[in-house]
């Protein structure tokens, strides 16, 4: 699913954040990326979905070469991805149903399929009682649950999640980890999570990459 060959990452040709990283992520892997604050965890994740291009080396994500700037290929790739942002990135003037429906609309699903999928996802994220609500009417934990539901809506091949439970209450955290676990185990979706807090009771086999002083290595 992801192959990195000597990739180096930086912003605006400044100091390298990730240097000469080599690793691979296989289909159906559940991956944690950890490291101290500022180590480059989110930077690496941004490279995976093409928000940041590699400075050198080669990066393949779902057979798309992200070492080369090709906007049309990047758009095609992003249709295959589900992304959970740290700051949710929900559209404020859309209801939560409309936010979750966005990836389905991009894929031109008909309205009945969209509505059924949204109804199921709202049930899974324990927000059926919030139908018709707007993001600003929800707590932070509830907004993040909507963001995870949106990422899952179109059954992507890979989900990237940046600190999905960083500042959430235990209830919302448990809901989100269960969703990501089920997406991996039941749907076979590859899951890549940046976090400083790996749950001790996830109950699923996973791999962990750690970043230390620009070096990416797999922890045993």
Walkthrough of the structure:
With 220 residues, this protein is an alpha/beta fold. The protein has six helices and ten strands; from the N terminus they run E-E-E-H-E-E-H-E-H-H-H-E-H-E-E-E. It has helices at 41-48, 71-78, 96-106, 111-124, 140-152, 170-185; strands at residues 2-9, 18-25, 30-35, 56-61, 64-65, 81-84, 158-162, 190-194, 207-212, 215-219. The strands form two sheets. The protein has a six-stranded mixed β-sheet, with helices on both faces. A four-stranded antiparallel β-sheet has the order 2-1-4-5, covered by helices on one side. Helix 4 (111-124) packs across helix 5. It is globular, with a radius of gyration of 17 Å. The two termini are 21 Å apart.
Write out key terms for the chains shown.
single chain; 220 residues; alpha/beta; six-stranded mixed sheet; four-stranded antiparallel sheet; 6 helices; 10 strands; 25% strand; globular
Produce the secondary structure layout:
Elements: E1 2-9, E2 18-25, E3 30-35, H1 41-48, E4 56-61, E5 64-65, H2 71-78, E6 81-84, H3 96-106, H4 111-124, H5 140-152, E7 158-162, H6 170-185, E8 190-194, E9 207-212, E10 215-219
Parallel strand pairs: 3-8, 3-9, 6-7, 7-8
Antiparallel strand pairs: 1-2, 1-4, 4-5, 9-10
Helix pairs in contact: 3-4, 3-5, 4-5, 5-6
Task: Tell me the distance between the termini.
Answer: 21 Å
Shape, principal axes of CA atoms: globular
- Beta percentage is 25-35%
Specify the oligomeric state. single chain
Question: Helix tally?
Answer: 6
Q: Spell the H/E element sequence.
A: EEEHEEHEHHHEHEEE
